[in-house]
Amino acid sequence: MRGGALGGMRLRSNYRYVNEVPLRAEADPLHVNWCELTITDERDGRLLYHNAFVTNHPISDGTVAAIVAAGRTRWKVENEGNNTLKTKGYHFEHNFGHGQQHLAAFLLTVAHVMQASMPYPCYSANSITSADELLVR
After folding, report:
1. How far apart are CA 120 and CA 79, in angstroms?
2. What is the CA radius of gyration of the chain?
3. Where do the DSSP E strands lie in 1-137?
4. pTM: predicted TM-score of the whole model, two decimal places
């Protein structure tokens, strides 16, 4: 558990995790590692945030906060990317299907990724040594 403060609230972060959870009830299931974060306001016990994540990385007391932070960041990137595709002129809806009838949706996603990478068109992945270098150039 960790505590903190934000805008007059006293925050309590509670991490829970378990390793080697079978994904299915079968003879030889895939095992995953599971963790969750619950943030409450200590003053009134009100739930402010709750989410759970699954990973193949081993989780311990020393790694759970970093794994949750990575999961939250990944969720945010995916959510903002999908929101852009739906509301910023791409007119894209969620694609639950696969196959040729969904090729246009796939190509639209590829186009969006290409457009998103355009602010740095003259940099190759090998020429950038740090994030600070992007800000200096």
Report:
1. 22
2. 20
3. 2-6, 9-22, 31-41, 47-55
4. 0.59
